[in-house]
Design goal:
Distance between the termini: 60 Å
Strand content: 15-25%
Mean pLDDT: 78
Number of strands: 8
Structural class: alpha/beta
Number of domains: 2
Strand order of the largest sheet: 1-4-5-6-8-7
């Protein structure tokens, strides 16, 4: 697919960050990436290769992405597409998943047997206004309730499929580092013993993967090493591709390589904008201090305007605007 040279356009920081987030979702939505996530998180896949696991991921997988530019086409099938990521339940509002897809656990002779519904979320921060695990439970519960009239009907509850909500948390705090935890439904007999097979109640799991590249990327070949490399804001495209191919057996398809390149470019743009914004904030503070100090010294306003023009390389109109902005009640 032909790529547009959107990176050459002027973008504000918010726009760049939004696009960076979309590239992260698209990269995580690659079938190769999802296979490695499943292998590292779900017990039933651990003895299989990523190449085998890709065969058990259904093709109708959707990434909740907004076009980078109006009218831009969807990614092709090498990145996941198809499954509706929007959840609408009457009276319960709407939520949008980052990535949602269906996969099968292999049984005897590697035949697909057990169907799973899986949601993957990219989280930039560990500490937000809610607990991530609680959000994961909500997402999982929504995926369970949505199965009515899709996976089963009426009272055929035994046809309910297990759901996984997997959160990948970048920039985890140092005291957590590279970690992973699973929260799931378990059985505890309080009085006596109620015989019940695990598959009857083990229907929801929330898995949180914490990444901290600064602390340590993680051992080569591990899920943490893979994700820290894939999502690193420090490594350029060439470094990432070499490591992903050499250490993790990835095949660099054109689309995935392009996504990595654009994500790396956006990461650099975010950093540059942050630096520029910091410099600009410093200049604004300097202008404010000069104006307030001179007003306190009863310096005439025309003289203050001259000082602003000379010190901060402003034209007269800009200097007057700053004076009006920071004059206050002085």
């Amino acid at each position: 697919m032909k790529r547009k040279t959107w990176i050459s356009r002027e973008l504000d920081t918010a726009g760049i960050k939004a696009q960076y987030d979309e590239h992260v979702k698209r990269i995580l939505g690659s079938r190769q990436v999802l296979a490695r996530i499943l292998k590292g998180t779900i017990e039933g896949y651990r003895s299989y290769s990523p190449e085998e696991i890709t065969l058990w991921i259904e093709p109708d997988i959707e990434i909740a992405s907004v076009p980078l530019c109006p009218g831009e086409e969807k990614m092709d099938d090498r990145l996941i597409n198809g499954e509706n990521t929007e959840s609408k339940v009457p009276g319960e509002g709407t939520i949008t998943y980052d990535i949602r897809f269906r996969a099968f656990l292999p049984g005897k002779n590697k035949k697909a047997e057990i169907k799973l519904l899986i949601n993957v979320e990219a989280q930039k921060k560990f500490y937000v206004k809610y607990r991530i695990v609680t959000r994961g439970i909500f997402y999982g519960a929504r995926m369970l309730s949505e199965q009515l009239d899709r996976e089963f009907s009426n009272s055929e509850y035994d046809k309910l499929k297990k759901v996984y909500s997997i959160f990948i948390c970048m920039n985890a705090p140092m005291h957590i580092g590279n970690a992973m935890a699973e929260y799931r439904i378990t059985k505890e007999d309080i009085i006596g013993n109620i015989p019940e097979p695990r598959k009857s109640y083990d229907k929801l799991s929330v898995i949180i993967i914490c990444l901290n590249e600064k602390l340590k990327k993680g051992t080569e070949g591990t899920l943490h090493g893979f994700l820290n490399t894939l999502l690193s804001p420090e490594m350029d495209r060439k470094e990432k591709e070499e490591s992903l191919v050499r250490d993790y057996g990835m095949k660099m398809e054109y689309e995935l390589g392009e996504e990595l390149s654009e994500m790396c470019n956006l990461s650099e743009a975010i950093e540059e904008n942050a630096i520029k914004r910091g410099i600009q904030q410093g200049i604004q503070q300097g202008i404010q201090i000069l104006i307030e100090d001179n007003l306190e010294e009863k310096i005439p306003e025309d003289r203050i305007i001259e000082k602003l023009q000379k010190k901060f390389k402003l034209n007269k109109e800009e200097a007057v605007k700053y004076l009006e902005k920071f004059r206050g009640d002085k």
